[in-house]
Every structure is written in structure tokens, then in C-alpha cells.
Design brief:
This protein has 17 helices and 25 strands. The chain is of the alpha/beta class and 537 residues long. The protein has three domains: 191 residues, ANL, N-terminal domain (Rossmann fold), CATH 3.40.50; 178 residues, ANL, N-terminal domain (Rossmann fold); 95 residues, 2-Layer Sandwich (GMP Synthetase, Chain A, domain 3).
Length: 537
């Protein structure tokens, strides 16, 4: 016997309608490139989205499923463009401006973008690659100034768009399984690959994420994580579903700029990667400042170190909610939310628990497997490839003929993890980064986390390099002042944190470490550079 409930497609145009009807007077704040802060009503901004959609449809000729690209920071223009594109049934393609020119060309051509919206800051970037694009696509610059270019004929300013008389009266009615947005990831080998989210997957993820992050009608959220990176972990959609106040930080993401923003607007929830919080924490400690309005900092993208968790708690009374996910997962998979059990623990035990990536959200199945694909026990000891499945997890990459999941529908994350008897999960490494020494795994992430806890180390990276006896051994590269760093002391410090046989065979001081477009360490490059380092010793 089937239930007797209605069919009601889960689509983003419905979400936009809902926000227009219920949160029109709710506000969000956006900072522009010149640093000024402006408050906007969602109702007014979504009216602008209707104008943009009208312009796209009638002046540019955008149809259902055409890709509308953006290369922009988190601000009001970008937000309005998001909902214009998706609300009219086009596919929003957010592009990472930190990509190398060749990747940018590849992605725009591969996605077959029909128009690109860009921040004025990125005009030189798009002009630089424009002749290599397959089509002379129109470019819309997100500025209310007049705009011209010697390279691009087909160029408009946002001012032209808003001045246009075209307006979409009603948002599109669309199948819930239709594509809504597209995001490319470089976290795989080869060319960047596109992940194509559907309306339904986005709505389901939004429900789950709103609950997991714990937003309520009083929340004010500062997404420092960019809107070009997996939809800022879903915050634009969370805002429309819950009416929360967003605080969009624009391009300045250094410690001083973020502190000024936080101090002025008083958000309670911050979201971003560890590097950003390192910048903020350093600024706070150098200037003897504390965070007063913030309750929670959500950290993902790479592991949140113990030292950071502790500093947020001890100095700022802020709970660091550790999350884990991937572009392929929309992105949220697991979170270590504050719970009564956690808050009642001894501080040291609690901080250790918080270094775990946490518990899965309902809608995400997780398991770890060995090399023969046998499921491993959830005993907090066994570690193996982390596999996931669920309704907001990708089945195959954009334009790929083959499924990325296995026969039973599990997607291999490329991460190596341990699952504990209580259900929580800890990432111990990435499959490609794992160090295997004498047949045993060494976690480069644990070593890095330990090393950054040492006061003279600003950033740390551990790579596995070939070794004549052990096959592979860890090499520790640290960003630190060579004249003051005492390597013996650092080794002793590490010895108190990790197993002795894990200690790096050498420590090298560098002035900086190479990062990819999304801020991740480029370990493949380092492994190549140092591949003979221990062989020659
Ligand atoms: P995002 O950076 O938003 O999580 P990406 O697709 O760029 O998404 O990267 C996903 C990968 O980043 C994961 O497979 C994992 O290796 C790493 N990652 C993400 N979150 C964490 C975390 N909390 N701890 C450790 N690694 C993480």
C-alpha cells in the first residue's frame, strides 16, 4: 500500500518564491571591493534577480539548461546572479578565480558557458584568456559603473542589466531532477571535473545543512568560504530557506578585514577553511582582541588542528564545529556538532574528539573498506578507503559516460578514515598522500597537525618520500625562520604527540609551501622535488 501524499517537486524556483513571500523584508549585508558595507532586503535583491533573468532570456538568449557562469567573490551581485540563473532554469556554473589560465579556458569551454558574470577585479583575467575561448561569449561585469574593454566587444555592466525593462514575472516550473548548478573540482587527477547538482539534491542538502549547522531565525552567518567553492557550502540556499541574515565579506579575507567585519556586524556563526581562521587568530592574538558575538566557527576543507580548536575555545569561548565533505558531496558529509556529551567532557578529551570530522548527516551513508573492498569494523582502529552514498552525492562527473560509484552505488572519496564505535569518523589521510612505511600506514595529516602546534611553525606539510630500507618515510617541510627554529626541540615536541616510528626522517625549513587553486597543498610537486632526499642521505 502506498501513502497518500502529494507530489511536490523539490526545486530552487519554489525556494525563491518561498523567500520572496516570507522573508522579503529580512536583510543581508554585503561588503564591496572598496570596503564599504551595505544592507539589502532579500525582497529587493530577488527583484533584481528577476531583472537579470529577464535580461539573460531576452537580450542574451539564455534557455533552459544553458550554463551561466560566474567568477566572483561573495557579495550581493553574486547572490542576485545565483538566483536569477537557477530560477529561470539555466545552470549556474561558479568558477574559481584562482585557477590557472589554462584551467579556466578548459572549464569554460568544457561547460559550454553561454555568458560569464565577473567581478571587475577579474576583467584582466578573462581578457587574458578570451581569444582562447571556443565562442565569443558575452561578459557581464558586476559593477554599476560604465564598462568597456579593448578585447571583448560583447561586454555589459550590471548597471545595463538592472536598467533593462525585461523582467521575469514567474520563476520556471522545472523537474526536481533537472540540473541546477555546476562546480568543477581539481581534487582528482587529470583535468578538472564538473559536478552537476540537481534541484532536488540541493534542496535536500539545504534541509540537512540548515539543521546540522543549527541556524535559527536569530542567526547571522558569515560564509568566508567562497560562493565559487561548492556554493559556499550551501549558505545562499540556507538563507532563502530559513531567512537568516547573511554577511557577505567581499574579497578582503585577511585577519584584520575579517575582524573589522565581525566587530561591526556581530555574526554568531562563521564558516571557512583553517587557513582563514589561522589568519584571524593571529591577528586577534597580536592585537590582544577577542571575539564576542561568535558562538560557532564551522571549519572544513582540510583538517582543523587541535591547537586551533583549543585556541578558539580558551581565548574566545567559540566552539569549532569540524565538518568534512567534498565538491562531489554538495559538500556536507559529516560534522562534529556541539552536543551535551561533548561539552561535559574534560577539555583535553573534548578537543581531541573535535579533531574528528564527526558524525554523518542523515542522508549520507559512510563506510570504510580494505583493499579487497571488504567493509572494515567500526572499532576506531581499522582504517581504509572511505566510501559514501546518498541523495546529494554525485553519481558521475559532468559529460562522463561512466559512473563514479561502484556497483552498489558507493562513491570512493579518496580519503582514508577510521570509524569509531560511536559512529564518528576521523580522516587519517588522503589515499594519494598516505605514507606506507615498512608496510604500516603513517598519517601525514596527524603529523602536520602536531607540527603546527609547535610555536615556531607557521605551516607544515608532510610528504612520503622513497627510502632505501622502509620503502617510504615522512619528510616534514615547515614554514619557519631557519635561524631560530630548533629542529631537535621540534622533534622532541613531536615525539610527545605521535608514535616514535612516525617521526619525520628530516625537517626542512622553507619560506613558503605550494598551494593549489583551492588552497590545498600541492604535495605531488613536493614529492617530486624531494624524491631523492632520503635516498641520497
Ligand atoms: P572541500 O574543500 O569543500 O571539502 P573539495 O572537493 O575541494 O571540497 O575537497 C574535498 C577533500 O578535502 C576531501 O576529500 C578531503 O580530502 C579534504 N577535506 C575536506 N574536509 C576535510 C576535513 N575536515 N578534514 C580533512 N580533510 C578534509
Amino acid at each position: 500500500m502506498k501513502g497518500n501524499m502529494m507530489e511536490w517537486g523539490l526545486t530552487i524556483p519554489k525556494l525563491i518564491n518561498f523567500a520572496e513571500e516570507n522573508f522579503a523584508d529580512n536583510t543581508f549585508v554585503s561588503r564591496s571591493a572598496d570596503g564599504s558595507l551595505k544592507s539589502y532586503k532579500y525582497g529587493h535583491s530577488l527583484q533584481n534577480s528577476r531583472k537579470i533573468a529577464g535580461f539573460l532570456k531576452n537580450k542574451i538568449g539564455i534557455n533552459l539548461t544553458d550554463r551561466v557562469a560566474t567568477i566572483a567573490w561573495n557579495d550581493s551581485y553574486h547572490l542576485e546572479t545565483y538566483f536569477a540563473a537557477i530560477g529561470m532554469g539555466a545552470v549556474l556554473h561558479t568558477i574559481n578565480p584562482r585557477l590557472f589560465p589554462e584551467q579556466l579556458i578548459y572549464i569554460i569551454n568544457h561547460a559550454e558557458d553561454k555568458v560569464v558574470f565577473i567581478d571587475p577585479l577579474f576583467l584582466p583575467l578573462i581578457e587574458g584568456v578570451y581569444s582562447k575561448l571556443d565562442h565569443k561569449i558575452p561578459i557581464i561585469v558586476l559593477t554599476e559603473e560604465e564598462i568597456s574593454s579593448e578585447v571583448i566587444d560583447n561586454i555589459y555592466s550590471y548597471k545595463d542589466v538592472l536598467a533593462s525593462e525585461e523582467i521575469i514575472e514567474s520563476w520556471v516550473e522545472i523537474d526536481e531532477d533537472a540540473a541546477a548548478s555546476l562546480c568543477y573540482t581539481s581534487g582528482t587527477t587529470g583535468n578538472p571535473k564538473g559536478v552537476l547538482y540537481s534541484h532536488k539534491s540541493t534542496i535536500l542538502h539545504t534541509w540537512a545543512a540548515s539543521g546540522a549547522i543549527g541556524v535559527n531565525s536569530m542567526s547571522m552567518v558569515l560564509p568566508v568560504v567562497p560562493m565559487f567553492h561548492v556554493n559556499a557550502w550551501g549558505t545562499p540556499y540556507i538563507a532563502l530557506m530559513t531567512g537568516i541574515k547573511l554577511l557577505l565579506p567581499g574579497p578582503a579575507l585577511d585577519g584584520a578585514s575579517l575582524y573589522e567585519l565581525i566587530d561591526t556586524e556581530k555574526p554568531d556563526i562563521l564558516m571557512g577553511v583553517p587557513t582563514v581562521w589561522l589568519g584571524l587568530l593571529n591577528y586577534l592574538s597580536e592585537n590582544d582582541l577577542t571575539l564576542s558575538s561568535v558562538n560557532q566557527v564551522m571549519v572544513g576543507g582540510s583538517a582543523a588542528p587541535y591547537a586551533m580548536i583549543k585556541e578558539f575555545d580558551e581565548k574566545h569561548d567559540v566552539f569549532l564545529t569540524h565538518g568534512w565533505g567534498m565538491t562531489e558531496m554538495s559538500p556536507l558529509g559529516t560534522m562534529m556538532q556541539p552536543t551535551r556529551r561533548l561539552l561535559e567532557m574534560k577539555k583535553d578529551d573534548r578537543y581531541n574528539m573535535q579533531t574528528r570530522q564527526g558524525f554523518p548527516l542523515f542522508g549520507v551513508d559512510i563506510k570504510t573498506v580494505d583493499e579487497e573492498n571488504n567493509t572494515l569494523p567500526r572499532d576506531g582502529v581499522a582504517n581504509g578507503a572511505l566510501k559514501v552514498r546518498g541523495p546529494w552525492i554525485m553519481e558521475s562527473y559532468f559529460k562522463s559516460d561512466s559512473k563514479s560509484s561502484d556497483k552498489k552505488g558507493w562513491f570512493d572519496t579518496g580519503d582514508v578514515a577510521t570509524i569509531f564505535p560511536d559512529g564518528s569518523m576521523q580522516i587519517v589521510d588522503r589515499a594519494k598522500d598516505v605514507i606506507k612505511s615498512g608496510g604500516e600506514w603513517i598519517s601525514s595529516i596527524d603529523l602536520e597537525n602536531a607540527a603546527v602546534g609547535y610555536s615556531d611553525v607557521q605551516e607544515a606539510c608532510v610528504v612520503g618520500v622513497p627510502h632505501p630500507k622502509w620503502d617510504e618515510r615522512p619528510l616534514l617541510l615547515v614554514v619557519a625562520d631557519e635561524s631560530t627554529l630548533n629542529k631537535e626541540d621540534l622533534l622532541k615536541f613531536l615525539e610527545s604527540k605521535v608514535a616514535k616510528w612516525w617521526l619525520p626522517d628530516d625537517i626542512i625549513c622553507v619560506s613558503e609551501l605550494p598551494h593549489g587553486a583551492t588552497g590545498k597543498l600541492l604535495k605531488v610537486e613536493l614529492r617530486e622535488e624531494y624524491k631523492n632526499h632520503l635516498m641520497e642521505k
